Amino acid sequence: MTESTSASRAGEPLLVIDDLVVEYPAKGFRKQPFRALKGVSIDIKAGECVGLVGESGSGKTTLGRAVLGLAPVTGGSVRFKGQEIGHLSRKARRALSDEIQVVFQDPYSSLNPSLTIEQTLAEPLRVKKMSAADSSKRVRKLLDQVGLPSDAADRLPREFSGGQRQRIAIARALALSPELIVCDEPVSALDLSTQARVLDLFKDIQEETGVAYLFVSHDLAVVRHLSHRVAVMYHGEIVEYGDGDKVTSDPDHPYTQRLLLAAPVPDPIRQEQRRADRRRLLESQREMELQAGAV
Ligand SMILES: Nc1ncnc2c1ncn2[C@@H]1O[C@H](COP(=O)(O)OP(=O)(O)OP(=O)(O)O)[C@@H](O)[C@H]1O
């Protein structure tokens, strides 16, 4: 970090994304670069969970990748603790991995099938030159933190269910005590009851460690569970951003209202009411568009 950036940004949130533009280069049938993020601004404070919702293709994963220094940033900035991280070399990115970690969607492909759980969790510790005894202690502590028995250490990923594998992935992300974890749809591949338990685990871990999350999901109900603030993304732009309860229960933007009404609810009568509300909302939006001559 340069002195000038750290001094001039004193007191700013942990992560500040400011007017971020990401463009994927032209390739194959695409003759022009594709602008996946069109001037996105959000911030995350230490210990906070910011949920990022939007439909498939809206740019959520691209934003998560930008925070990990893995997206082709062409404008704006991503600052972590005052340091610009949008354009890091591979070496600088590796150094930052102590502080920013990631949990991916697929618990089946994100763990190396030939490594025991102990080897998986000890890998980042070994890179940090932790002694074998300390590493073994840390692995037991991590397993305990994510609710797995210590004898899980000697087993292989294939011996675990999807939910348990996601717990192992979370333990791996926690190994170096990061300050921020990018969670990219971490419960989408799990059944509903397992989702709820893993979401509770994310919440407990945040309370215990003070880690911050950028929590990406297409599902408003999922981000509602643990987000202090929620950002809604639509076609590469943030269309609504604010208090988590407000955005997920009484949103202002028509796109968020549509997302909310599209989310299934277990009660069939409420579900039918939602369908009717959704139809009315779509009709009134269509009318407004016609009046404005937009269609
Ligand atoms: N490597 C890439 N090269 C070119 N275009 C890409 C690349 N990755 C993503 N895109 C495009 O950028 C847009 C945003 O994709 P992104 O994966 O960020 O969306 P998303 O909201 O995370 O969707 P999903 O939930 O389906 O993963 C999409 O139109 C996608 O096709």
TrEMBL record:
SUPFAM superfamilies: P-loop containing nucleoside triphosphate hydrolases. The keyword Transport applies. GO terms for molecular function: ATP binding; ATP hydrolysis activity. The keyword Manganese does not apply. InterPro entries: AAA+_ATPase, ABC_transp_ATP-bind, ABC_transporter-like_ATP-bd, ABC_transporter-like_CS, P-loop_NTPase. Residues 15-260 form the ABC transporter domain. One of its GO terms (biological process) is transmembrane transport. Keywords: ATP-binding, Nucleotide-binding, Transport. Belongs to the ABC transporter superfamily. This is ABC transporter ATP-binding protein. It comes from Naasia lichenicola.
